[in-house]
Write a structure and sequence with these properties.
- The protein is of the alpha+beta class.
- It has a single domain, classed as GTP Cyclohydrolase I, domain 2, CATH 3.30.1130.
């Protein structure tokens, strides 16, 4: 009779040497613009609220003498304002996709979570909107 000789091996996962995580966020940034699909939404500007969280490459360290060393949230809010002024959107989903395109131009950004709301769109609702999360890999692969 043949004896089975099995060898037990242990698989070890690579440990992440750093637990540092840097997030840049923009909270409750409000723009007033025309946005919507329905006729009544195209007649008057409405509030659009952005909440954004950006996971930043941990190897990029801030230099107090150089604003280019950080992800500049003012630059991002300016891009969002320009998007909404230069194009009339029917859907928040389309605005979110264009926002990803603008924000991911900064190669230090690894992932983005965007939440866009219209607080005055639906009667008896505090707010309606869309929330999307994408990694750089998701974005570049799409």
């Amino acid at each position: 009779m043949k004896k089975n000789n099995f060898k037990i091996i242990e698989l070890k996962t690579k440990k992440n040497k750093s637990l540092i995580k840097r997030t840049v966020f923009i909270k409750d940034f409000i723009i007033e613009e025309i946005i919507g699909f329905y006729k009544h939404e195209k007649e008057k500007k409405q509030k659009i609220i952005f909440n954004i969280a950006l996971d930043i490459d941990q190897n990029s360290l801030p230099n107090e003498k150089d604003i280019k060393s950080i992800v500049d949230y003012e630059k991002i809010t300016n891009k969002l304002e320009n998007l909404t002024k230069s194009k009339k959107y029917n859907f928040l989903e389309s605005l979110a996709e264009d926002s990803f395109e603008e924000i991911f131009r900064d190669k230090r950004i690894n992932s983005i979570k965007i939440k866009i709301e219209k607080p005055d769109a639906i009667k008896n609702a505090n707010s309606v909107g869309v929330e999307v999360f994408k990694t750089r890999k998701d974005y570049e692969g799409s």
